[in-house]
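User: Hey, my collaborator sent me this sequence without any context and asked if I could get a structure. I don't really work with proteins. Can you help?
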Amino acid sequence: MQNQAHLEHMTVWGLVSEASLVVQAVMLYLVLASLISWYLIVQRGGVLRRTEALAKDFLKRFRSDETGALYRAGVQQELPADAALQRIFLAGYQSFSQLQAHAGNSTETVLDGVERSLAVAIAEQEERLEKGLPFLATVGSVSPYIGLFGTVWGIMNSFLGLSQVQQATLSTVAPGIAEALIATAIGLFAAIPAVMAYNRFSARSQTLIARYYAFANELQGRLHRRLNGVGAGMAAAA
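Assistant: No problem. I've predicted the 3D structure and written it out in structure-token form, which is a compact way to encode the shape of the chain:
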């Protein structure tokens, strides 16, 4: 019976339940951090997949359709939350239409206004892409140290307990050290997926942001050609 009770105590759950309050608090914090991290991994992964697919689809339409028709179709429908490239296009073209309506605005004034509108729209989408990444970075960098703190605390308590024992054996030391090491294991379990997800999501976000800037340059080039065409037509008519 004593051996059976000892074996039950040496299970993972038994070690966790017998750990000190400080070590249990460390484990609870790490488990919560891991759960939130996995939620963000699934949620941000879905956002990036949808954003990439919608951006690819809109870029094809942008290069094959007329710009004004794309704008009219965009303002008449409710855009998905992940249609980042289309939102950037609408912001730039709306600024272009408003500035072009004033006859006194020069080509440089119109294009400068479009550039500023595009920069603001890209910054908004960049912020949206990076949402949740700081938390993943924090969990990935801090969790191992928090787990190590729990391990050090548990081992310290184990050695303090040895001072009250006449004869120290492996069976008296092992449970305390084992429960302390569980904190490090949970810390690594929380940190490793968070670090991998952060690196992966950061790379994909930077790729999308570079695509946004490339699209903005392409849109500005198309609007510049349109303005020059209008200007040349007006000069010829005069």
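In plain terms: Residues 176 and 213 are 56 Å apart (CA to CA). You can pass these tokens on to your collaborator as they are.
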